[in-house]
Design brief:
The chain is mostly beta strands. Helix content is 10%, strand content 29%.
Length: 171
Amino acid sequence: FPDVPAALYVPDKSKYSSSSDANWNTFSPMYNGERGVGTNDVLNLTYEYATGEQEARLIKGASTAAEVTIDSYVPKTDGKKVTAIAASAFTSSTNLTTLVIPKGVETIGAGAFKGCGSLEKLTLPSSLKEIGEEAFADSKNLSTLYLGMEADALFAINSNVYSSEITPTIY
Protein backbone atom coordinates (compact mmCIF):
# COMPACT_ATOMS: atom_id res chain seq x y z
CA PHE A 1 0.00 0.00 0.00
CA PRO A 2 2.78 2.50 -0.70
CA ASP A 3 0.50 5.02 -2.45
CA VAL A 4 -2.23 5.00 0.19
CA PRO A 5 -1.95 8.02 2.50
CA ALA A 6 -1.97 7.04 6.16
CA ALA A 7 -1.29 8.66 9.49
CA LEU A 8 -0.57 7.29 12.93
CA TYR A 9 -2.24 8.86 15.96
CA VAL A 10 -0.64 7.93 19.28
CA PRO A 11 -1.53 8.96 22.86
CA ASP A 12 2.02 10.15 23.62
CA LYS A 13 4.15 10.70 20.54
CA SER A 14 7.36 11.10 22.56
CA LYS A 15 7.19 7.46 23.69
CA TYR A 16 7.27 6.27 20.07
CA SER A 17 9.21 8.84 18.08
CA SER A 18 12.31 8.36 20.23
CA SER A 19 11.89 4.60 20.43
CA SER A 20 14.91 2.44 19.70
CA ASP A 21 12.66 0.35 17.46
CA ALA A 22 13.48 1.66 13.97
CA ASN A 23 10.00 0.83 12.67
CA TRP A 24 8.40 3.61 14.74
CA ASN A 25 10.97 6.15 13.64
CA THR A 26 10.20 5.61 9.96
CA PHE A 27 6.44 6.06 10.22
CA SER A 28 5.38 9.46 8.97
CA PRO A 29 3.26 11.31 9.70
CA MET A 30 2.88 10.50 13.38
CA TYR A 31 0.57 12.73 15.41
CA ASN A 32 0.24 13.28 19.14
CA GLY A 33 -3.24 12.43 20.42
CA GLU A 34 -6.45 11.02 19.02
CA ARG A 35 -7.69 11.89 15.54
CA GLY A 36 -10.25 14.67 15.50
CA VAL A 37 -12.40 15.96 12.67
CA GLY A 38 -13.93 19.40 12.35
CA THR A 39 -16.14 20.88 9.66
CA ASN A 40 -17.23 24.15 8.17
CA ASP A 41 -20.84 23.17 7.51
CA VAL A 42 -21.61 26.25 5.42
CA LEU A 43 -18.84 25.57 2.87
CA ASN A 44 -18.74 21.79 3.41
CA LEU A 45 -15.04 21.72 4.31
CA THR A 46 -13.60 18.89 6.43
CA TYR A 47 -10.50 19.27 8.60
CA GLU A 48 -8.40 16.68 10.43
CA TYR A 49 -6.26 17.24 13.51
CA ALA A 50 -4.66 15.45 16.44
CA THR A 51 -6.12 16.29 19.85
CA GLY A 52 -2.63 16.82 21.32
CA GLU A 53 -1.49 19.29 18.66
CA GLN A 54 -2.52 22.78 17.56
CA GLU A 55 -2.18 22.29 13.79
CA ALA A 56 -4.77 20.90 11.39
CA ARG A 57 -5.13 20.15 7.69
CA LEU A 58 -8.02 20.48 5.31
CA ILE A 59 -8.70 16.98 3.97
CA LYS A 60 -11.86 17.45 1.90
CA GLY A 61 -13.42 20.41 0.14
CA ALA A 62 -16.83 19.32 -1.07
CA SER A 63 -18.18 22.83 -1.42
CA THR A 64 -20.53 23.69 -4.25
CA ALA A 65 -19.91 27.40 -3.66
CA ALA A 66 -18.23 29.47 -6.36
CA GLU A 67 -16.19 31.48 -3.85
CA VAL A 68 -14.33 29.69 -1.07
CA THR A 69 -12.13 31.15 1.65
CA ILE A 70 -10.47 28.38 3.61
CA ASP A 71 -10.72 28.79 7.39
CA SER A 72 -7.61 29.96 9.25
CA TYR A 73 -8.72 27.90 12.25
CA VAL A 74 -10.90 24.78 12.39
CA PRO A 75 -14.41 25.82 13.47
CA LYS A 76 -15.59 24.69 16.93
CA THR A 77 -12.15 23.63 18.16
CA ASP A 78 -9.79 25.11 20.73
CA GLY A 79 -7.86 27.05 18.09
CA LYS A 80 -6.56 24.33 15.75
CA LYS A 81 -4.69 26.34 13.09
CA VAL A 82 -5.02 25.21 9.48
CA THR A 83 -1.48 24.77 8.14
CA ALA A 84 -1.98 22.30 5.27
CA ILE A 85 -4.30 21.31 2.46
CA ALA A 86 -4.19 17.58 1.75
CA ALA A 87 -3.48 16.02 -1.62
CA SER A 88 -6.59 15.85 -3.82
CA ALA A 89 -8.67 17.81 -1.26
CA PHE A 90 -10.66 19.75 -3.87
CA THR A 91 -10.07 17.60 -6.95
CA SER A 92 -12.64 18.34 -9.66
CA SER A 93 -14.57 20.98 -7.69
CA THR A 94 -16.11 22.30 -10.89
CA ASN A 95 -18.07 25.21 -9.32
CA LEU A 96 -15.04 26.82 -7.70
CA THR A 97 -14.19 30.18 -9.35
CA THR A 98 -12.46 32.10 -6.54
CA LEU A 99 -10.22 30.58 -3.87
CA VAL A 100 -8.54 32.31 -0.94
CA ILE A 101 -5.96 30.33 1.00
CA PRO A 102 -5.28 32.12 4.31
CA LYS A 103 -2.01 33.13 5.90
CA GLY A 104 -0.76 30.25 8.04
CA VAL A 105 -1.17 27.58 5.40
CA GLU A 106 2.32 26.24 4.67
CA THR A 107 1.63 23.18 2.50
CA ILE A 108 -0.63 22.41 -0.45
CA GLY A 109 -0.67 18.72 -1.35
CA ALA A 110 -0.22 17.21 -4.80
CA GLY A 111 -3.25 17.62 -7.03
CA ALA A 112 -5.13 19.44 -4.25
CA PHE A 113 -7.09 21.54 -6.77
CA LYS A 114 -6.52 19.46 -9.89
CA GLY A 115 -9.40 19.60 -12.32
CA CYS A 116 -10.93 22.78 -10.89
CA GLY A 117 -11.60 23.97 -14.42
CA SER A 118 -13.71 26.99 -13.42
CA LEU A 119 -11.07 28.45 -11.05
CA GLU A 120 -10.31 32.02 -12.17
CA LYS A 121 -8.92 33.83 -9.11
CA LEU A 122 -6.47 32.40 -6.60
CA THR A 123 -4.94 34.00 -3.51
CA LEU A 124 -1.85 32.34 -2.02
CA PRO A 125 -0.38 33.33 1.38
CA SER A 126 3.16 34.43 2.23
CA SER A 127 3.38 31.51 4.68
CA LEU A 128 3.43 28.96 1.84
CA LYS A 129 6.52 26.71 1.88
CA GLU A 130 5.51 23.67 -0.16
CA ILE A 131 3.24 23.08 -3.16
CA GLY A 132 2.76 19.52 -4.38
CA GLU A 133 3.03 18.55 -8.03
CA GLU A 134 0.06 19.48 -10.21
CA ALA A 135 -1.63 21.23 -7.30
CA PHE A 136 -3.59 23.41 -9.76
CA ALA A 137 -3.33 21.26 -12.88
CA ASP A 138 -6.18 21.57 -15.38
CA SER A 139 -7.22 24.93 -13.93
CA LYS A 140 -7.27 26.34 -17.44
CA ASN A 141 -9.38 29.41 -16.57
CA LEU A 142 -6.96 30.69 -13.92
CA SER A 143 -6.52 34.32 -14.95
CA THR A 144 -5.61 36.14 -11.72
CA LEU A 145 -3.11 35.13 -9.07
CA TYR A 146 -2.73 37.16 -5.87
CA LEU A 147 0.51 36.38 -4.07
CA GLY A 148 1.54 37.14 -0.53
CA MET A 149 5.13 36.72 -1.78
CA GLU A 150 7.32 37.55 -4.75
CA ALA A 151 6.55 35.51 -7.87
CA ASP A 152 10.14 34.22 -7.90
CA ALA A 153 9.63 32.81 -4.40
CA LEU A 154 6.50 30.97 -5.53
CA PHE A 155 8.22 29.36 -8.49
CA ALA A 156 11.22 28.47 -6.33
CA ILE A 157 8.79 26.42 -4.19
CA ASN A 158 7.48 24.61 -7.27
CA SER A 159 7.85 25.62 -10.90
CA ASN A 160 4.86 23.42 -11.84
CA VAL A 161 2.20 25.29 -9.83
CA TYR A 162 -0.31 25.53 -12.68
CA SER A 163 -0.61 24.47 -16.31
CA SER A 164 1.94 25.92 -18.71
CA GLU A 165 -0.94 26.58 -21.12
CA ILE A 166 -2.08 29.62 -19.15
CA THR A 167 -0.47 32.91 -18.13
CA PRO A 168 -2.38 34.46 -15.24
CA THR A 169 -1.90 38.06 -14.22
CA ILE A 170 0.15 38.03 -11.02
CA TYR A 171 -0.36 40.66 -8.30
